[in-house]
């Protein structure tokens, strides 16, 4: 342990703790910009400078370990003046269009300028006139606003291991871009949006498609659309943060109410189609595991960023991929076939919207031909949680004071197994709950598989299904997957048995609750709270296994027939193909 | 036809060349007159450098060194030395009135002013022949270290020597090696920083071009001392000859078994690889250099941890400058105590300076620490070119400051230069005279920093460009007093908040010149005048009243207009309104418009 | 020569030291040493070197004269520089060499045993190896 002082306040912390973290322990907040709790310190911006007694230099609090006997001063006129000058320097290279910026009111640079009382710009404006890159359809890169904090580059390279974006150029010409200045859409980018989730300013943000949704909602007369919406599990425990509530607050029923007031004709829930996904994928797993029909391990495919990553980096593992579509896409297909029939609506008039924590889902909804399995585009527009928050505010809806309402049948009600899709390990746990029954014909006494839960990057568990050992692995945060897959590849090359039978992969840390489209400010603390919210929802659900959902049983009886049957393969399954890393 | 004697008369411009000419002619005449024309050749030479005791006459082969020679002495020199073979004792250089006569040339103080340790072999051996290096005690230090010393003994010797890093920071070398020696690690590294990026500095280049083995031997000794088996020389790609010579040297060392496995049969392994820089000054910063070796963008990373503990690929790494390395073998062969006798209390040994600029004898100069600037510039350097007035000396490249005439007698060492607002730096020493504009110089250095800033941290990335923009405003004649305050404000922020030495020291030339030459800055701002005449936009147009006949042509051509005057009376240009278009200058048929 | 043992290194050093004091290299008594650092080359040292080679050849001095290269002698302000070591003549360093002066050097200094006017400069420091 190390004993030191911060502004005269004694503090005791573990060796190696940074000054920044030590200060937090005694409720002293040192301002930062480039720092992110998810990443190793980049130490670039120079805002977190502090003084230490007897040291003539100023130190960066974010990366300097506090030492025994150190006496740190975090605020004095000289330090504050230095920080303010640094902010003024950064502002001199930053566009002044806050009022038109997607991060207006939610921007870390704005906050610093406000906190430091910036009232003038003493230095000449030096902008680089860089073009905007909107080539992915999911994310927009406005490199002009980039403050070179390094978060997106570190996230894409170290955290996600995708290496789509890098720093090019030197000095004030330094800018973020894919290698060789190709467009982001031609790069390895998997659209996970983690770059946008970590960006402190308006340099990378989601492609806002709310205008399209407003447009559809407003159509009247002959042009009127039947607007249908589905919300993902991860949205319900995070949307509240945009309205001042703590992370993990479950606003499901208020969100339904809000969506109705926005003008949607039918409110469904992706958790229902998550149950559907389990029926399909669980059956698929049993076929491969118990009957040897297909490759093991089976790897989940509901995360579109993961699908893109796999097609680019691990094309040799396509046979291992579950052919089941994601819950979003299954719901899309079901709405424009099953529900359209039941509600006697012309599918051509349905405008299907999904609200997702995810930016990659914007790309998934037109990924290939199978996303048009209903005869039309199954999901027309995907909005992120951030976009829904804006729509609710635009419409003047007082979300927190709405009454609780229910979703619509038959594609609304869900089980606990469906809702836990939002957390890392959730898909695996939901699948195991049903797989057990599919294999043994019996019901589980305890449906909780805690071994696959938690924030640890790679989790392993051995499950005993009546004497048979099933080995499973769960990986989240794209950078963790290489380790797992290399072991699978190695075993295959050596002709050995696969280390795991079933692997769940989520591109975002924490699973979908940590998605690239969620409200800003996600840290492990926030992730844990959102995950807690998800599992609370599970525990409070009437049914906790997908195969218990009465409306699921109905759907198979009335429409689909059997899981992995002919109709399922038409509507609820997809295929994959190897893709190059760079299109140019 | 062989001459028995040679008389060399120093004809340097620093000397009283007129007297030297007379001496020369007298000697020729006397030789003729005394009948020894065939025995002695009298030649005029270039500058011998010992200007304060000139005119100098040297007689060979006896190595007689005559000082303050007068033309009348010619007769005696011929009659005594050439005819009778006896030295003219009264003309010989003496240290002082009481000392013995025949002081050997190499003991003459002037030749002591330069003390070539680092450059000991440069200009003496063929760098492409390892045998010549070996002949001059080459690899004797390695022998001693491996076979007669323990690693701790090597560190102790370095500690005694007091050697401090020559790259600029002056960190005690023994301490750096010790930090790397102590921890256990499966791999350690030794790195040579040969990225030498300071404009005007070429000490490291010449050392590698002239004596590459000194670096190789030193790095091998370090490998033995800290327990590293692998080394890298990171050298800038703009030094092709040095790279070639280094490659040849490494190959020769490997051939002789002085690099590689089982060196000299001792069981010690060490080998070297060359890595080329790619045109980035920032890669001279040690952490950025290591990032570059690892194949990443050359951007600094925060310290701690320091490379000595966690460097290349996270392993203990000793990284030293070329000049630091070149000192090591001598410290081991001659002993740390011998080394510590040279220099000042805090800064031991010598320093190589690349003396350039407005100086007569530009070149590489290696002097003991504690030598004064005056000695370097006037004694060794031969004074200012063209007899102009000294204005300042810039040390430390873009990280350093200006030392003005008031401080010429400062003994040079790490602490004294820092106290003056400059720094030792890698050894560049640029001499400036009255025709150099200090504002322009600081703008030049800032432009360099703008180009070379890696861009990672905001204070440097934006600060350098903002400071440059302000300096350009001033040299364009559009500056305001406010701009000086802004320069200070940005400069202070950069010094405190920049991530690495490049950004932290980039404001130094500006802040230093603003401190010592504030008058010049104010002149540029208030009067829009550049006294040195270097800032083109500040050229001043004036009408010479004596030549002006008052024809009024200039006033008619002036676009502002800012020229007034009565007909047939001398006209006047309003300098505050003048836009420097030059129309009046072009128009005047009487040469009355003067450009200043 | 192959990898050496300690003893072999020491013997090599001794042998080469003797060579140096004998002032003889490869059996040739006259050494012309040209400073070939980058600054020397930039100032024309290569042309100087080539000219000396040519002149030595023309005067048939090949078996007595060895022309060698070295690094920076420290007299950068008068590059290219050439050091001439010759029995019976004082060892001098010539600076401000050109092709013309190089021709003169061979003719006057090596053949006629006369020093060249106005081109002699001095080594700026003593040799620490001799202390």
Structural write-up:
The complex is a heterotrimer of chains A (584), B (596) and C (131). The longest helix of chain A has 22 residues, at 270-291. With 584 residues, chain A is an alpha/beta fold. Chain A has helices spanning 19-25, 77-92, 108-115, 151-159, 194-198, 210-218, 233-236, 252-262, 270-291, 304-313, 327-343, 360-364, 385-394, 416-419, 426-440, 481-493, 524-539, 550-560, 566-571; strands at residues 2-6, 9-13, 49-52, 58-60, 71-73, 132-133, 139-142, 166-168, 175-177, 204-206, 226-231, 266-269, 298-299, 350-356, 381-384, 458-465, 468-476, 502-506. Helix content of chain A is 34%, strand content 14%. Chain A is built from 19 helices and 18 strands. In chain B, 58% of the residues are buried. Chain B starts with a strand and ends with a strand. Chain B has five domains: 5-112, Glutaredoxin (3-Layer(aba) Sandwich); 130-340, Rossmann fold (3-Layer(aba) Sandwich), CATH 3.40.50.11540; 350-433, Ubiquitin-like (UB roll); 438-526, Up-down Bundle (de novo design (two linked rop proteins)), CATH 1.20.1440; 540-595, 2-Layer Sandwich (Alpha-Beta Plaits), CATH 3.30.70.20. Chain B has 23 helices and 17 strands. Chain B has helices at residues 17-33, 73-83, 109-113, 130-135, 140-148, 151-161, 173-181, 203-210, 212-226, 240-255, 286-293, 322-334, 336-340, 373-380, 414-419, 438-452, 458-475, 481-497, 501-505, 508-516, 518-526, 553-557, 583-587; strands at 5-10, 40-45, 57-60, 64-66, 189-194, 230-235, 271-276, 317-321, 350-357, 363-368, 390-395, 402-404, 428-433, 541-543, 563-564, 572-573, 593-595. Chain B has a five-stranded mixed beta sheet. A four-stranded mixed beta sheet of chain B has the order 2-1-3-4, covered by helices on one side. In chain B, strands 7-6-5-8 form a four-stranded parallel beta sheet, sandwiched between helices. The mean pLDDT of chain B is 91. Chain C is of the alpha+beta class and 131 residues long. Chain C contains four helices and five strands, in the order αβααβββαβ. Chain C has a five-stranded mixed beta sheet with strand order 2-1-3-4-5, with helices on one face. In chain C, a hairpin with a 6-residue loop joins strand 3 (82-85) and strand 4 (92-94). In chain C, helix 3 (45-58) packs across helix 4. Chains in contact: A-B, B-C. At the B-C interface, strand 2, helix 3, helix 4, helix 5 and helix 8 of B face helix 1, helix 2, strand 2 and strand 5 of C.
């Amino acid at each position: 342990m190390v004993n030191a002082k911060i502004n005269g306040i004694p503090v005791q912390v573990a060796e190696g703790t940074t000054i920044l973290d030590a200060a937090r322990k005694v409720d002293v907040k040192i301002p930062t910009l480039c720092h992110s709790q998810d990443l190793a310190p980049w130490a670039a911006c120079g805002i977190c400078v502090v003084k230490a007694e007897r040291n003539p230099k100023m130190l960066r609090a974010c990366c300097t370990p506090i030492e025994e006997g150190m006496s740190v001063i975090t605020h004095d006129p000289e330090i504050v003046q230095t920080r303010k000058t640094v902010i003024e320097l950064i502002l001199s290279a930053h566009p002044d269009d806050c009022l038109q910026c997607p991060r207006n009111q939610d921007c870390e640079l704005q906050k610093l300028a406000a906190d430091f009382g910036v009232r003038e710009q003493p230095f000449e404006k030096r902008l680089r006139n860089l073009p905007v890159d909107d080539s992915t359809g999911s994310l927009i890169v406005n490199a002009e606003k980039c403050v070179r904090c390094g978060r997106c580059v570190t996230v894409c390279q170290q955290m996600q291991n995708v290496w789509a974006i890098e720093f090019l150029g030197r000095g004030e010409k330094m800018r973020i871009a894919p290698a060789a200045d190709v467009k982001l859409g031609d790069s390895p980018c998997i659209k996970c949006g983690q770059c946008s989730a970590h960006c402190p300013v308006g340099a990378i943000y989601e492609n806002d498609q709310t205008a399209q949704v407003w447009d559809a909602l407003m159509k009247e007369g002959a042009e009127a659309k039947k607007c249908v919406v589905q919300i993902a599990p991860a949205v319900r425990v995070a949307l509240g943060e945009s309205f001042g509530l703590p992370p993990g607050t479950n606003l499901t029923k208020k969100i339904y109410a809000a969506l109705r007031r926005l003008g949607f004709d039918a409110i469904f829930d992706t958790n229902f189609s998550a149950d559907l996904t389990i029926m399909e994928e669980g059956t698929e797993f049993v076929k491969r595991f118990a009957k040897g029909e297909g490759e093991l391990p089976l790897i989940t495919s509901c995360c579109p960023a993961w699908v893109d990553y796999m097609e680019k980096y691990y094309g040799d593992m396509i046979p291992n991929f579950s052919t089941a579509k994601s819950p979003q896409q299954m719901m899309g297909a079901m709405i424009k076939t099953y529900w359209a029939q039941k509600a006697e609506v012309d599918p051509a008039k349905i405008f299907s919207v999904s609200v997702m924590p995810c930016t990659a889902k914007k790309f998934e909804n037109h990924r290939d031909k199978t996303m048009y399995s209903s005869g039309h585009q199954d999901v027309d527009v995907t909005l992120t949680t951030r976009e829904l928050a804006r729509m609710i505010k635009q419409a003047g809806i007082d979300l927190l004071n709405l009454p609780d309402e229910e979703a619509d049948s038959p594609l609304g009600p869900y089980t606990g197994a469906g809702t836990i899709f939002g957390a890392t390990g959730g898909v695996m746990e939901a699948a195991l709950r049903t797989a057990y029954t599919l294999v043994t014909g019996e019901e589980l006494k305890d449906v909780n598989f805690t071994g696959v839960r938690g924030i640890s990057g790679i989790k392993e568990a051995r499950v005993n299904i009546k004497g048979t050992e099933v080995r499973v692995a769960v990986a989240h945060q794209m950078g963790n997957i290489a380790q797992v897959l290399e072991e699978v590849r190695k075993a295959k090359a050596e002709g050995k048995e696969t280390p795991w039978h079933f692997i769940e992969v989520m591109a975002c840390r924490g699973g979908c609750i940590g998605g690239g489209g969620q409200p800003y400010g996600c840290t492990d603390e926030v992730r844990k709270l959102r995950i807690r919210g998800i599992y609370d929802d599970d525990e409070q659900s009437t049914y906790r296994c997908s195969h218990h959902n009465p409306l699921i049983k109905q759907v198979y009886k009335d429409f689909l027939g059997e899981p992995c049957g002919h109709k399922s393969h038409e509507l609820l399954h997809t295929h994959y193909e190897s893709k190059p890393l760079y299109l140019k | 036809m062989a001459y028995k004697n040679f008389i060399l008369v120093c004809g340097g411009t620093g000397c009283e060349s007129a007297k030297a000419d007379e001496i020369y002619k007298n000697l020729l005449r006397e030789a003729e007159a005394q009948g020894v024309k065939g025995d002695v050749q009298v030649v005029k030479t270039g500058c011998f450098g010992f200007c304060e005791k000139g005119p100098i006459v040297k007689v060979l082969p006896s190595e007689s060194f005559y000082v303050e020679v007068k033309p009348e002495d010619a007769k005696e020199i011929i009659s005594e030395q050439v005819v009778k073979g006896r030295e003219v004792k009264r003309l010989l250089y003496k240290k002082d009135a009481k000392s013995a006569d025949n002081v050997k040339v190499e003991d003459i103080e002037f030749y002591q002013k330069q003390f070539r340790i680092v450059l000991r072999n440069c200009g003496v051996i063929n760098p492409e022949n390892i045998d010549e290096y070996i002949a001059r005690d080459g690899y004797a230090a390695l022998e001693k270290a491996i076979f007669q010393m323990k690693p701790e003994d090597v560190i102790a010797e370095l500690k005694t020597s007091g050697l401090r890093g020559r790259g600029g920071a002056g960190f005690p070398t023994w301490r750096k090696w010790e930090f790397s020696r102590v921890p256990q690690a499966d791999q350690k590294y030794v790195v040579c920083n040969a990225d030498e990026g300071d404009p005007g500095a070429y000490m490291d280049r010449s050392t590698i071009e002239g004596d590459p083995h000194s670096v190789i031997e030193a790095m091998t000794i370090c490998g033995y001392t800290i327990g590293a088996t692998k080394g890298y020389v990171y050298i800038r790609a703009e030094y092709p000859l040095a790279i070639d010579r280094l490659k040849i040297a490494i190959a020769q060392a490997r051939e002789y078994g002085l690099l590689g496995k089982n060196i000299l049969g001792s069981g010690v392994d060490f080998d070297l690889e060359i890595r080329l820089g790619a045109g980035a000054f920032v890669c001279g910063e040690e952490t950025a250099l290591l990032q570059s070796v690892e194949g990443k963008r050359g951007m600094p990373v925060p310290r701690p941890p320091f490379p000595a503990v966690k460097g290349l690929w996270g392993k203990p790494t000793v990284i030293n400058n070329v000049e630091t390395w070149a000192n090591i073998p001598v410290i081991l062969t001659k002993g740390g105590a011998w080394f510590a006798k040279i220099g000042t209390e805090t800064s031991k040994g010598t320093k190589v300076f690349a003396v350039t600029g407005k100086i007569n004898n530009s070149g590489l100069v290696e002097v003991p620490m504690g030598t004064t600037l005056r000695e370097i510039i006037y004694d060794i350097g031969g004074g200012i070119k063209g007899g102009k007035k000294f204005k300042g000396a810039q040390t430390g490249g873009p990280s350093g400051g200006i030392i003005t005439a008031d401080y010429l007698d400062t003994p040079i060492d790490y602490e004294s230069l820092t106290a003056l607002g400059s720094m030792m730096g890698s050894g560049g020493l640029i001499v400036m005279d009255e025709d150099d504009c200090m504002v322009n110089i600081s703008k030049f250095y800032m432009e360099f920093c703008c180009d070379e800033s890696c861009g990672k941290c905001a204070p440097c990335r934006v600060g350098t460009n903002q400071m440059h923009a302000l300096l350009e405003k001033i040299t364009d004649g559009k500056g305001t007093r406010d701009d000086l305050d802004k320069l200070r404000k940005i400069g202070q922020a950069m010094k405190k908040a920049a991530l690495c030495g490049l950004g932290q020291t980039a404001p130094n030339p500006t802040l230093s010149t603003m401190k010592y030459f504030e008058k010049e800055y104010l002149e540029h701002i208030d009067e829009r005048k550049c006294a040195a005449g270097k800032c083109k936009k500040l050229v001043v147009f004036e009408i010479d009243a004596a030549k002006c006949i008052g024809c009024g042509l200039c006033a008619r051509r002036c676009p502002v207009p800012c020229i007034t005057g009565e007909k047939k009376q001398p006209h006047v240009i309003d300098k505050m309104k003048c836009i420097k278009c030059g129309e009046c200058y072009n128009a005047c048929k009487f040469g009355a418009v003067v450009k200043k | 020569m192959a990898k050496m043992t300690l003893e072999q290194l020491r013997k090599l050093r001794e042998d080469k030291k003797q060579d140096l004091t004998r002032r003889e290299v490869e059996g040739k008594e006259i050494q012309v040493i040209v400073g070939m650092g980058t600054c020397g080359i930039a100032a024309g040292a290569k042309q100087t070197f080539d000219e000396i080679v040519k002149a030595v050849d023309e005067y048939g001095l090949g078996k007595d004269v060895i022309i060698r290269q070295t690094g920076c002698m420290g007299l950068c302000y008068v590059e290219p520089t050439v050091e001439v070591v010759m029995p019976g003549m004082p060892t001098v360093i010539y600076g401000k060499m050109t092709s013309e002066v190089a021709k003169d050097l061979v003719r006057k200094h090596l053949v006629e045993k006369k020093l060249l006017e106005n081109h002699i400069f001095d080594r700026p420091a003593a040799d620490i190896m001799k202390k």
